[in-house]
């Protein structure tokens, strides 16, 4: 059903003050949906002008605006805005390292203990600098074990294959209070036609892990070469079983080593970098809490949340979104962080803003889910609330700019809306979505939400872009 909505919450101007009332969806959008064979009952739309004064040309428009839909990665809008409000833009995660034992010269006779708080951006560069701080304490040799304290996050089994049965894809990475480099490997394949071999190099290097390369073949082309390789990871082995076409030349593959434990991954990277810094370590890696009598050696602070949410939204990073949601829950709940505590905190926050949470379901906050739901109207009201919030500059700056950066750098580049819209995209099987802000030619800014849940959703991109252009040109 097509519906002209009365302005809600933040917008209370009478209908008579608007220059033009739009009671139906624009014809260009309807045409593109028809071409894509997407019925209107599979589409949710919400458009709302955001000014408190003036005469916007478009009234708020809704199509199935109260129906909860799978939002895909537009759910990150909900997570990141709520986090900025609840935690504050300057919030930082802390990773600490302790020593348990005595230091004699440059030898630590005891354990080195890392305690994480869920830093979503604890990458390789950060880890390297952090280890240099430990070396600066005069420690070179560690005569003990590596203890990893992950108690900040609730311990539970995570199945990286649960969403789409593709566990080695980086977007399927699970949360970890000591997440290191998103637990992602950049794997380089280098074929040698002279000796008929393929060398495999990982970045970061995995110390103590034996790599078995694929077999080189001179048969076949390079399209879909990854499908010919079966990945297998264990604590001390990385196997790339299958055939690698010589015609591929050098190739890179970003891999999430799902079947290698988080602790084994941490140890292999730690030992590699520690050796690079001139250190030695031959101990084991164990899980455990920081003892009360352990000595703090150094502490690493993440970039501020305002920077983290840019990575989450610009590049649609799922595991970072998971961490942000879980951290939000720690503000009002004791004990280890969990997705449920984070979801409860977000729902409570939205309700406190007068935003209806009927039909809102949050599973992990990333949108990589077949459970999460939100209505276009609720999403639109969240965007309107964010626009009036003190954290609006940080939030809006985190969204991809049409035709310029992030997940939208290739989209709408040759259109009138290029550079004039901040929008979060969403895409999983049978779902295409977009939510954010469009600055119209008139100078009015609009909150725009467009969601398609249908087997033909992959064909909805032209309709999506057409709607954004229409709002810009006619709003």
From TrEMBL:
InterPro entries: Beta-lactam/transpept-like, Peptidase_S13. It is an enzyme of class 3 (hydrolase). It holds the Pfam family Peptidase_S13. The keyword Cell division does not apply. Keywords: Carboxypeptidase, Hydrolase, Protease, Signal. Its EC number is 3.4.16.4. One of its GO terms (molecular function) is serine-type D-Ala-D-Ala carboxypeptidase activity. Residues 1-19 form the signal peptide. GO terms for biological process: peptidoglycan metabolic process; proteolysis. Gene3D superfamilies: D-Ala-D-Ala carboxypeptidase C, peptidase S13, DD-peptidase/beta-lactamase superfamily. Belongs to the peptidase S13 family. This is D-alanyl-D-alanine carboxypeptidase/D-alanyl-D-alanine-endopeptidase. It comes from Oxalobacter vibrioformis.
